[in-house]
Amino acid sequence: MNSNKIFNTTNLGNIAMVQTGPFGSQLHEKDYVEKGVPIITVKHLGYGRIIKNDIPCVSESDVLRLKKYLLKIDDIVFSRVGSVDRSVLVRQEEDGWLFSGRCLRVRVTTKDVLPAYLYYYFTQNSFREYVRKNAVGATMPSLNSSILRRLKIIYPILSKQKQINDILSTIDNARANNYTKIQLLEESARILFREWFVYFHFPGHEKVKIVDGVPEGWKKEKVNKLVTFKRGVEPGSNNYLENNESGSFPFSRVSDLITRNPSIFVDEQYVKRALLKKSDIVISLDGSVGIVSMGLEGCYSTGIRKLIIKDKKINRAYLYFLMKSHYTQGIINAYAKGTTIQHAGEAIKHLKCILPPQKLMDLFNEIANPMFNETLILLEQNQKFAQVRDLLLPRLMNGTIEV
């Protein structure tokens, strides 16, 4: 590297190894075990960090067989299919984990580039757009190792990279702390949901008989009789806007259900048919199926369904955790069709729930609502952090802001 040059340009393949995850024939869902070594899938690729909710595990014997796909600190993991512009940096706590076949691993091989800098470079909106344009497939974009290796990377000297990392990591750490708080809030409410509505350890359960497997007075009901699953729209990639122009709205795709930070915008004409407000609950039923989220606003894609309650027998808190329950996720996975692209719309008519007496339903809502409200506040803070980061990122990378 010529130290007199301000920036250096090369192909990613010259500074890093790119590895595709194990193909389906090497690892099946039936190989997952309750306790073992975690394996991350596309749905666990959060905003810069791996989301640790509901991570499957594999046995030690499978790890030995698949050691080629182990992760190390500072590896970068890409989504290989769908939201191909999404990536995360592997931290110390994920060292030794595996990554799935729907992911790609990037491992820096030169001392001239810091892995954290490369990760931040990948998260620029301009680079993410560059990745999307180089992906193959019209219906469902996909990447392979050859495409990634050919991508152009620009980087400054190491001292500049470190300064850039220090500035951006401060913002990212604040966001990560908020996400940790959100996970803790959600976990406490999820445990309560499980105790009351799965294990039936609700207040006063000692005095209630179990009849046909459910507490007396509780009713079994089909979810689609209580809730409408409203599908989003697809404006087409030609109508995507990179910037938030006047009259445009954020456009959430399936990957944004995890990051809650959409990077694409669309004209208001599409919002009329698929409008989200932050309190809405959504679930993905195409692509990476079964992702449940809230805190988004604007327009949403066809891979997402907005849940609209049409019967007061059910409320938002109960519905949210019902959708995230092992039962619902199991039904969605059971009826998902397709290999590269999964479609689980068929699962809707098979979803059932057990409705408790209204008084107990309302009590759970009263307890869980503060969690929802606090979560929305934390998400709003993170959106502001993201705006600052997105403003600084390109300027730091191109040298407009001197460090």
Write up this protein.
This protein is of the alpha+beta class and 403 residues long. The protein folds into two domains: 7-155, DNA methylase specificity domains (Adenine-n6-DNA-methyltransferase TaqI, Chain A, domain 2), CATH 3.90.220.20; 219-355, DNA methylase specificity domains (Adenine-n6-DNA-methyltransferase TaqI, Chain A, domain 2, Alpha-Beta Complex), CATH 3.90.220.20. The chain is built from ten helices and 23 strands. It has helices spanning 60-65, 115-122, 125-134, 145-150, 158-197, 256-259, 268-271, 316-324, 326-335, 358-398, and strands at 7-11, 16-20, 37-40, 57-58, 76-79, 87-89, 98-99, 103-108, 152-156, 210-211, 214-215, 219-222, 227-231, 248-252, 264-267, 275-276, 281-284, 286-287, 292-293, 298-300, 304-309, 342-343, 352-355. Strands 2-8-5-6 form a four-stranded antiparallel sheet. The protein has a four-stranded antiparallel sheet with strand order 13-21-17-19, with helices on one face. It has a four-stranded mixed sheet with strand order 15-14-20-16. A hairpin with a 7-residue loop joins strand 5 and strand 6 (87-89). Helix 5 runs antiparallel to helix 10. The two termini are 20 Å apart.
